[in-house]
Design brief:
Blueprint lengths: L35 H9 L28 E7 L2 E6 L2 E5 L33 E3 L3 H9 L1
Parallel strand pairs: 3-4
Antiparallel strand pairs: 1-2, 2-3
């Protein structure tokens, strides 16, 4: 059987490095992916850790200013990859998730174990929303 030629990376074109071979990114010290049977064993065989019912943050929820003007920059962590970015009079929210689960289905997916870093009622007026993943948009629309 003839070897297949690797397709170029359509998202990045750059020089090879210690973690990029010119086509694929990889973890130099990592181990290769396991077999599908190993995944099933981990999922169904009782080897995975139990998801905690709660893991409250030691920090109080933030109460951001309505606007941050001039050259100032303020970042407030909401949770996971959700951030409130305030700069130049703009409020930008990335990957907004206030729902109990990050999933298009309300009964499936990882369940929130601590409150968001900002209560929804304390959000300042939002000028822009930025979604990096499709599922966050679904969860945000449900919230």
């Amino acid at each position: 059987m003839a070897a297949r030629k690797r397709a170029a990376n359509r998202y990045y074109s750059g020089p090879p490095s210690d973690h990029f071979d010119g086509t694929l990114f990889f973890n130099p010290d990592g181990k290769p992916p396991g077999r599908f049977a190993d995944l099933l064993k981990w999922q169904l065989g009782g080897e995975r850790a139990k998801w905690p019912a709660a893991n409250p943050s030691p920090f109080h929820q933030a109460r951001p200013d309505e606007r941050v003007d001039s050259g100032a920059l303020r970042l407030t962590m909401v949770g996971h990859s959700s951030l409130l970015i305030q700069t130049a009079g703009l409020n930008i929210l990335t990957d907004p998730v206030w729902s109990q689960r990050v999933s298009p289905l309300s009964f499936a997916g990882p369940k929130r174990v601590n409150a968001p870093g900002i209560a929804f009622s304390q959000l300042p007026p939002i000028d822009r929303r930025h979604y990096r993943r499709r599922r966050a948009r679904h969860a945000a629309q449900r919230a």
